[in-house]
DNA sequence: CTGAAAGCGCTAACAC
DNA sequence: GTGTTAGCGCTTTCAG
């Protein structure tokens, strides 16, 4: 039983200085009503004893923990880890701690234990940094426990009475498609992600809409489904090659799958961008070093994470200071087109390569 | 002041059932000394009120939080995010919560506030999931506060009195080099990572040692330094092309830099693996889809994260149960060679491609 | 088997 | 300015 933390308590500080714990409390909370000299003596003792107030005890009595619950999934993937990166840096800045929980699966729906654990720790708010997949949002409007803390959800369509931060995937898809059309490609195929993902559906909807708007036909054999992996990109590309021989460009649902396309094209000597234009989605770090470098849509997931933290803290603070409560709203971030060689057929026009 | 959590307390449960809080406590802690019927009534009330014991209050009184502090850095990168992935899954399994802190910089040395924050939250142990870079370990043997909790460090050389889990980078480097030599390459260059990183130094040391052991000369113009980025890989490769024209293979310090090499080679029509063999390090997901697919060294960071959690919990439990304390030790995980086309010159021999 | 009392480390409310 | 009292939600003695 080595338990018996070496850390000093407020009582010890108080007794060393010869004041009440109250006075020490006032000093550590920077209250004005302490005489300068008492304050000094207390501060010295704190320094000397290396005293650090117990966050646990404080949270318990204040009913406020300055801790945020973060729920994520697929941390080994590019998007989720970047989002978490944004969350940590923003939380750090705001002085909040983070309690982290990773779901075993994106579509996980057994969320009661997650809530229980986070609530047991008295988090002041939560960030649900899991994208909408399948029915993994079906509980949002009838939460298991009546919460009195705000939750900000990431990556889902807007919804009544819900705080949301997303990146506009539909707009991103439109940017990709518009660019391909500008480059003079006529027969544009699509490789989608798994369609139980909201993001995959949005990107695909943009593909369809732009085709229609430009008087092209949308046919079922003009697209194939992948599962986000490079391997599935290869397979989808092979399928499209058979199904849609006129195809001269592909809007691919993410960069990993686009990578599979590029690899197979390279292997078969199919010249990109001349014979085939390729645009991806995500702008993963590697995409600038594919061969040829990949045109893609950048999503700023780090920013999304940061904004989520800022929003949830705004709500917490307003709530706590008794201000006008902040109405739930949906924030949509705008992605950006990154033009690289994989889609740049009109080189003659110049100036466009490298433009972001 | 909407504060006043909707959650029920032990007192409420007790009064609803008409027993003391004590009895409720016994039930939730699964103590044997409660009559079956009382237990049942209490359990029903708990169910009905949706009662969940406060982790805060429990931690405070037990002096034990079942929470681990995790310190990481560069979460937007491949390695750190995978490591964290392993940490979360293992902690989940063991029933521990995770308090997460991300350093703004790998070489960050101002760690006192980090410790204070984590200790204030009474974590039972810590995982320092930041690789050794520069002097960011200089404080390990003289910690700021006299801790009574264990810390497991990741990715650093073994050291007296310190719990460590690392992947054997030196061995990985030897595997890469041995493979290149087996493939008949004669003039093997190296692109290193930044040499203030321990991992970069280990990989480079392996390069040197194998060269020496096989009777080759180690010359300063046979290697170039990168900074882990693809861009730096391109630059280092260009430099080597000038400095070391006989070069017929490169052992590259990580996959990202190798990707830069591959891209430039592809651009210049330099045939890989015939004219140039390339081996990377890390086995990032994309490396199988580079062109050509990249031979590399796999590091199982997820496993490293898992083991770190298991180790720290072992120490905590032993400590708490008053068992023989567990001696600090260093655990080295073995990496694996993944052979792909970028280094496979002896195709005639067959059977080797795809072998792991 | 069950309850009463004390207290983990801290702060809010009120005295003086 | 400063101290006293009470109590956040729980568990650990120790009675009975």
Give an account of the 3D structure.
- The first copy, chain A, is of the alpha/beta class.
- The first copy, chain A, folds into three domains: 10-53, lambda repressor-like DNA-binding domains (434 Repressor (Amino-terminal Domain)), CATH 1.10.260.40; 67-168 and 301-335, Rossmann fold (3-Layer(aba) Sandwich), CATH 3.40.50.2300; 170-299 and 337-351, 3-Layer(aba) Sandwich (Rossmann fold), CATH 3.40.50.2300.
- In chain A, 40% of the residues lie in helices and 15% in strands.
- In chain A, the strands form three sheets. The first copy, chain A, has a six-stranded parallel sheet with strand order 2-1-3-4-5-11, covered by helices on one side. A four-stranded parallel sheet of chain A has the order 7-6-8-9, sandwiched between helices.
- In chain A, helix 10 (255-267) links the parallel strand 8 (249-252) and strand 9.
- The first copy, chain A, starts with 9 loop residues before the first helix and ends in an 18-residue tail after the last strand.
- The model of chain A is unreliable at 349-356 (pLDDT under 50).
- The interface between A and B is large, with 67 and 68 residues.
- Chain A binds a DNA duplex (16 and 16 nucleotides) through residues 9-11, 19-23, 25-26, 29, 33-35, 38, 53-54, 56-63.
Could you estimate the helical fraction of the residues of chain A in percent?
A: 25-40%
Calculate the mean pLDDT score of chain A and round it.
Answer: 93
Supply the CATH class of the largest domain in chain A.
Alpha Beta
How many DSSP E strands of chain A?
12
């Amino acid at each position: 039983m080595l338990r018996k933390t070496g850390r000093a308590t407020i009582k010890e500080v108080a007794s060393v200085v010869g004041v009440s714990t109250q006075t020490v409390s006032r000093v550590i909370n920077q209250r004005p009503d302490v005489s300068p000299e008492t304050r000094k003596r207390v501060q010295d003792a704190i320094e000397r004893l290396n005293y650090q107030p117990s966050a646990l005890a404080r949270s318990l009595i204040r009913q406020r923990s300055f801790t945020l619950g973060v729920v994520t999934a697929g941390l080994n993937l590019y998007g989720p880890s970047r989002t978490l990166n944004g969350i940590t840096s923003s939380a750090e800045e705001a002085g909040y701690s983070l309690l982290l929980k990773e779901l075993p699966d994106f579509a996980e729906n057994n969320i009661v234990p997650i809530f229980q654990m986070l609530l047991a720790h008295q988090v002041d708010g939560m960030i649900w940094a899991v994208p909408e997949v399948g029915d993994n949002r079906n509980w949002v409007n009838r939460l298991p426990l009546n919460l009195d803390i705000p939750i900000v959800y990431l990556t889902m369509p807007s919804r009544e009475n819900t705080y949301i931060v997303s990146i506009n995937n539909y707009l991103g898809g439109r940017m990709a498609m518009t660019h391909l059309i500008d480059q003079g490609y006529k027969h544009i195929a699509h490789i989608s992600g798994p369609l139980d993902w909201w993001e995959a559906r949005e990107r695909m909807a943009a593909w369809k809409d732009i085709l229609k708007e430009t008087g092209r036909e949308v046919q079922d054999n003009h697209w194939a489904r992948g599962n986000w992996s490079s391997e599935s990109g290869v397979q989808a590309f092979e399928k499209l090659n058979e199904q849609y021989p006129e195809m001269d460009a592909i809007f691919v649902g993410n960069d990993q799958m686009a990578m599979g396309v590029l690899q197979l094209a390279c292997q078969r000597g199919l010249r990109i961008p001349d014979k085939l234009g390729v645009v991806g989605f995500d702008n993963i770090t590697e995409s600038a070093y594919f061969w040829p470098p990949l045109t893609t849509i950048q999503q700023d997931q780090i920013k999304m994470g940061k904004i989520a933290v800022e929003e949830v803290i705004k709500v917490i603070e307003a709530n706590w200071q008794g201000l006008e409560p902040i109405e739930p709203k949906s924030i949509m971030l705008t992605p950006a087109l990154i033009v690289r060689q994989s889609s740049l057929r009109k080189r003659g026009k110049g100036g466009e390569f490298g433009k972001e």
